[in-house]
């Protein structure tokens, strides 16, 4: 019956063949439009429900089954469309993600929740309570800030008078360039980006934060700081035709311990922020002829830095390695005029902002740092030049400030 069912419901290509029984030919035809199979075989049903018994095949079979090429004809030229069924081994991503998302909730029950709560220790309760409290406080602060009209008013002012997003982006890019500089892969532009980001957060960001806008001296010193520290690379350009440092004897790379350098950088940054906090608002700083002294100090600082760098490079190999004891230019008054010019630059900036207490703080930070560095350099100079440098030290007794220190 299964065979009959398959044949009845299958869509086959119509064809016919002939069965010969005792020299009598019977034609059997299969057509797709027939509802049942018909064969005019005599009283013999091949597919009947009677009990099937093994049949012995005689030596001379009474009938023969053969296919005739002439009688095998395709009655239709068109082929029936195959059944439309497909199989895909890929699982739906959306359904899988939903299933994975709901998987933890599938086995969630009140008993398991109760067991989890009973396993919590006092330390876990304190930890999760602190996290929940911080999240609630942060959410409350954010909501209050968003619905506060004064915040949006101040935000609009920052876009008009001081673009904070530019300063933050520049700081992030400066940190990236500093990382490349630390591994020796920073280009000239990236080195300039480091200097620009540092000076932005020294001279522009602090007064803009406390005043809400910028005008006057912060803009001036932003460019003065750049020009001041550009002298070092400009000397390389003048001597070698480019801005890159040359390899030299590493024993001349004298630096205090890392913690000392870090404290110096933090102290200088803190001093600039304290000056912006201590000084009056920018529009209250007087202008006119009263600021002539500040301009004189700026010119003296730039000239001192340029002459110190130039004379040191003139009597040095590869700029960083001195070949003689320099006793010309600013070296006639102090033994370390480059450090003195840096200190004078900071002092001039604090005078311009009218911040005397911050001035004293940054002077103390610079003197402590540069004193350690000068001690290391003088020891190496004595080791290299001997009596010549000792004689120079007796001749020029002051390290940084003439007649003072």
Task: Describe the fold and architecture.
Its main location: membrane. It holds the Pfam family PEMT. It is found in: Endomembrane system. This protein has 405 residues and is mainly alpha-helical. It contains 13 helices and five strands. Strand 1 and strand 2 form a beta hairpin. The longest helix is centred in the last third of the chain and has 30 residues.
Outline the secondary-structure elements:
Blueprint: H1 2-9, E1 15-21, E2 24-30, E3 63-66, H2 93-106, H3 110-119, H4 122-146, H5 149-161, H6 164-182, H7 188-211, H8 217-240, H9 258-278, H10 292-314, E4 316-317, E5 321-322, H11 337-352, H12 356-385, H13 387-395
Number of E strands: 5
User: What is Rg?
Assistant: 47 Å
Helix and strand succession?
Answer: HEEEHHHHHHHHHEEHHH
Biggest sheet record: 3 strands, antiparallel
Rounded mean pLDDT is 75
- Strand residue content: 5-15%
Multimeric status of the protein: single chain
Uncertain stretches of 5 or more adjacent residues: 1-13, 32-58, 62-81, 83-96
Strand order of the largest sheet: 2-1-3
Indicate the overall shape: extended
Distance between the termini: 118 Å
What is the helix tally?
13
Helix content estimate: 55-70%
**Secondary-structure-derived class:** mainly alpha
Main location: membrane
Subcellular location: Endomembrane system
Membrane topology: Multi-pass membrane protein
GO molecular function, one term: transferase activity
In short:
By secondary structure, the chain is mainly α. It has helices spanning 2-9, 93-106, 110-119, 122-146, 149-161, 164-182, 188-211, 217-240, 258-278, 292-314, 337-352, 356-385, 387-395, and strands spanning 15-21, 24-30, 63-66, 316-317, 321-322. A hairpin with a 2-residue loop joins strand 1 and strand 2.
